[in-house]
Amino acid sequence: MSDTSIRIDAGEAGFGDYFALLKPRVMSLVVFTALVGLVVAPVPVHPFIAFVSVLFIAVGGGASGALNMWYDADIDARMKRTRGRPVPSGRVTREEAFAIGIALSAMAVIMLGLAANFVAAGLLAFTIFFYVVIYTMWLKRWTPQNIVIGGAAGAFPPMIGWAAATGGIGLESVLMFLIIFMWTPPHFWALCLFMNDDYTRAGVPMLTVTHGRRTTRAHILVYALLLAPVAVGTAFTGIGGPLYLTVSLALNVIFVSGALKLWKRDEKAARADGYRAERRFFAFSLIYLFGHFLALLVEAALRHAGWGWI
Questions:
Q1: Which of 76, 134, 176, 189 has the fewest CB atoms found within 10 Å of its own CB?
Q2: pLDDT tens per residue, range 125-184
Q3: How far apart are CA 305 and CA 298, in angstroms?
Q4: Does 197 score more than 90 pLDDT?
Q5: Is the model's pLDDT at 296 over the cut of 90?
Q6: Contact (CB, 8 A) for 32 and 105
Q7: Cα–Cα distance between 164 and 176 in angstroms, integer?
Q8: Secondary structure (3-state) at 184
Q9: Is residue 173 exposed (0-12), middle (13-18) or buried (19+ Cβ within 10 Å)?
Q10: What is the pLDDT of residues 243-293, one digit of tens each?
């Protein structure tokens, strides 16, 4: 892979550049969902062990981000949305990004194994491998289904948190995985609807590039419909409850309605208004995921207070 497309700016990297290398916004989602997975697990965890576990899950997520930026520097340099990142802008070298990613990956996996258990550590190691090798190096540049399969990497954190508490994998942790896994495609495809030029310029075979926006809109609707019963059905497991059920029903009605609206949208009209509905759907998809996991967190607190329904 050539570095010829990477712009070199004057000046040395600062702390903020190295922190940005870890993709802090993505890391915040990793931290939150991993914390929820740990807290809703049926096994109590010492607060210090919980803190250390979530910390090193976050470090592992950051390491994945650094390795992604190392490998994707050429693509990032061509995209308006990503060309200001530390590596394509030249503030951090690809060699530095690779070294930081490898070092943090090893530290995160080893320390999570020592602090919690090696089931959680093994899941973290697999997550890093899946995101960097399976998604970044292979799927992203090869197939329009990249975000469908590759989305599994972002869905593992609650399973890792659950494993840190229990030492294993349960039905509830699989359902939390499935919520994120099935949410990821409509979330990213909504982004692609209004950022398609970026992906076209970078040569990334996103669904909007290979099959067009019309097909992408249909896929968003299908995934929204498939996601709804999984998300709502989680209410009837050991981690659910009436509050979660209420929140999930409301969020899924809005989400499916939004997907239906996108499916019905005329492309000329969408382009004329700057893809306003698509941008709103993308923004709401973040609220959708946060709302579900926050509701699970509140349900766990209610159960600890003796108010759970299961």
A1: 134
A2: 999 999 999 999 998 889 998 888 888 999 999 999 999 999 999 999 999 999 999 999
A3: 11
A4: no
A5: yes
A6: no
A7: 15
A8: helix
A9: buried
A10: 999 999 999 999 999 999 999 999 899 999 999 999 999 999 999 999 999
Can you give the pLDDT at residue 198?
87
Find out whether 74 and 5 touch, Cβ atoms under 8 Å.
Answer: yes
Q: Which residues contact 201 (CB under 8 A, 6 or more apart)?
A: 78, 79
CA within 13 Å, CB half, 210 = 13
- State percent of the chain over pLDDT 90: 77
Closest to 149 measured CA to CA, from 133, 173, 165 = 133
